[in-house]
Amino acid sequence: MTQAVGAGRATGFELLADLVADGDVVVLSGAGLSTESGIPDYRGETGRRRRATPMTYQTFVGSAEARRRYWARSHLGWRHVARAAPNAGHRAVAELQRRGLVTGIIAQNVDGLHQAAGATGVIELHGSLDRVRCLDCGERTPRDDLDRRLREANPGWAARAAEFNPDGDAVLTDEEVAAFRIVDCAGCGGVLKPDVIFFGENVPPDRVRTCYDLTERAGVLLVLGSSLTVMSGYRFVRHADRHAVPVAIVNQGPTRGDGHATVILDAPLGATLTALVARLTSR
Ligand SMILES: NC(=O)c1ccc[n+]([C@@H]2O[C@H](COP(=O)([O-])OP(=O)(O)OC[C@H]3O[C@@H](n4cnc5c(N)ncnc54)[C@H](O)[C@@H]3O)[C@@H](O)[C@H]2O)c1
Ligand SMILES: [Zn+2]
Q1: pTM value?
Q2: Which of 78, 207, 274, 281 sees the fewest Cβ atoms within 10 Å?
Q3: Please, what are the domains in the chain?
Q4: Among the options 75, 90, 126, 260, which is catalytic?
Q5: What's the gap in Å between 39 CA and the centre of ligand 1?
Q6: Beta carbon of 133 within 6 Å of any ligand 1 atom
């Protein structure tokens, strides 16, 4: 085991480096990994400022008005997500995968930034905002197609709404929402939903099973930027613990998984993961 210089015992960072150096790392990432790309989280600093109330599946499916509000907000918010670029944290994860140390990536995020940084085989636990699914015929289509159709159906709307909402994700007025026209499935006229798992909706069982299997076989489960408040991600931490797979957490602030963790680093992800890659290179 590597000793921290002068400290007389291994620091958390050195323990993390040891665990990752042994390989078979399965990453479980969350919203905190993308805040440095300018996408707010829910429960960290950026989320608290925004006071976001997430859409539930039941509300979305049960109310045409809720869907209009969702798509109107999302029509502006999507530009922000589509423009976001991966940060040093995403790049470090992709680099660890290229080196064969990371064998699985379970992303709770829906922003596609792991892949944009070059990671492959990413399991999108909660789906992705860059696809749209028809609730009636089940067809999946690119978000860019819907974006084009929404622009055509709402000439000038985004520019007018954005005048009042400079950050692109602020709450729209009732008038702005009422003026927004949503479009239906081009194939069957059915209801369109982003291909993401909303609160109140279950992740498909085969996807969950794949993640349990990955977790069981892991050398370490590495949690990056997730408060683990949502059971959907937390269950894999509990599963790792049950199977004696060590859990390492890098997250600013407490998480629900802290009691299961062998190593906890309360530190910013971009700098920490970049240092980790450098540390492993110098060994
Ligand atoms: N980018 C996205 O796709 C996005 C954005 C918001 C929410 N969501 C989804 O909503 C759910 C929210 O749960 P969650 O646990 O992922 O997020 P969360 O908001 O509950 O927790 C994020 C954690 O990351 C920490 N954090 C923020 N920036 C950090 C940084 N730079 N370095 C280190 N730590 C940092 C925060 O303090 C917080 O504890 C998930 O499904 C999530 O993916 C996705
Ligand atoms: Zn359809």
Answers
A1: 0.92
A2: 281
A3: 1-39+86-126+203-283 (3.40.50.1220), 51-83+128-196 (3.30.1600)
A4: 126
A5: 9
A6: no
